[in-house]
Amino acid sequence: MNKKRINVPKQIKFLMLLIPSLIIGFIAQSYPSYAKEAYTPIKTKTYKNVPYHWNGQSSHAYLWNANLTKRQHRLAHWPVTTWYVSKSLKMTNGHKTGIFYKATNSRKTMSGYIWKGYLTKGALTKGTYPAGLIDSKLNQSLISLFPGTIPDKQLQQVAEYYIHAVNTYEPGDTYYEYEGKILGAEKQKKASGFSTYSAVPGAYNQLRQNKVSFLQFEKNWLQKYLKADHKTFSDFSGWSISAYAFPKNSIFYGIIMIALLPPTTK
């Protein structure tokens, strides 16, 4: 294959140079204050920094200021962050009432209030992600584009680690190390794959505006890579495969990772 079929480690190193700048652009957004009435606590309970993480169910989850009048951070920008809860507060503005957690990240660079329905108890470690960021149906639909391929659990771990790679400032070498740990040195040498990441403005508009189906959008994109290599989807029959797609509730919806391994020769 020519340069269009890039080894996963090299590909990730390339992406790591691009994606942090994209994320910084997201983070730099200032969220407007609302003209709603301020909330005040009517009941509080103290905790000893209990770990929680965003459940990945809604991209509209935010870290708020103390009286819930201003959004400070969008949790979808920090999907693999563990939040440490020090208080729960029953809060009201006289019309609406809800329970919010006072939460801080491990580095203590972000602190605020999160509605409890957006959090799941427990810390996130490498290789674990919010349940809402794994859509098995989307992943399987991508694999179905490659007839005769064989789903592989180890490769699936590698593909899903793309969540972590895209959402942290870790260098590409960290992805390479994780891949080697999961696959072993021999398999890692043979591993290859595709990603539909693009920094081009509006690259995913058709998909995100529901003008084209998910599978058709990704198929069109992957066909461009394959055509440049004089390959088709059928040319990978007998290969091991895994796929990860950022789901619709993710700010990275449209970006996918396909990981592949050729058949073992005897």
Task: Please characterize this protein's 3D structure.
- It is a single chain.
- The protein has 266 residues and is an alpha+beta fold.
- The protein has two domains: 40-121, Roll (SH3 type barrels); 136-261, no CATH class.
- The protein has eight helices and eleven strands.
- It is elongated.
Keywords:
11 strands; five-stranded antiparallel β-sheet; D-alanyl-D-alanine carboxypeptidase; alpha+beta; four-stranded mixed β-sheet; SH3 type barrels; 29% helix; 266 residues
Task: Write down the domain tally.
Answer: 2
Radius of gyration: 21 Å
SSE pattern? HEEEEEEEHEHHHHEHHEE
The proportion of residues forming helix, as a percent range, comes to 25-40%
Quaternary structure type: single chain
Number of helices: 8
- The total count of strands amounts to 11
Main beta sheet strand tally, sense and closure? 5 strands, antiparallel
Question: In terms of per-residue confidence, which ranges show pLDDT below 50 for 5 or more consecutive residues?
Answer: 1-35
The overall pLDDT, averaged over residues, is 83
Strand percentage, roughly?
25-35%
Span between N and C termini? Answer: 22 Å
Task: Reconstruct the topology from this structure.
Blueprint: H1 8-27, E1 40-54, E2 62-64, E3 71-74, E4 82-92, E5 97-105, E6 111-115, E7 119-121, H2 136-143, E8 150-151, H3 153-160, H4 162-166, H5 172-183, H6 185-190, E9 192-195, H7 205-208, H8 214-228, E10 240-245, E11 256-261
Parallel strand pairs: 8-10
Antiparallel strand pairs: 1-4, 1-7, 2-3, 4-5, 5-6, 9-11, 10-11
Helix pairs in contact: 1-5, 3-5
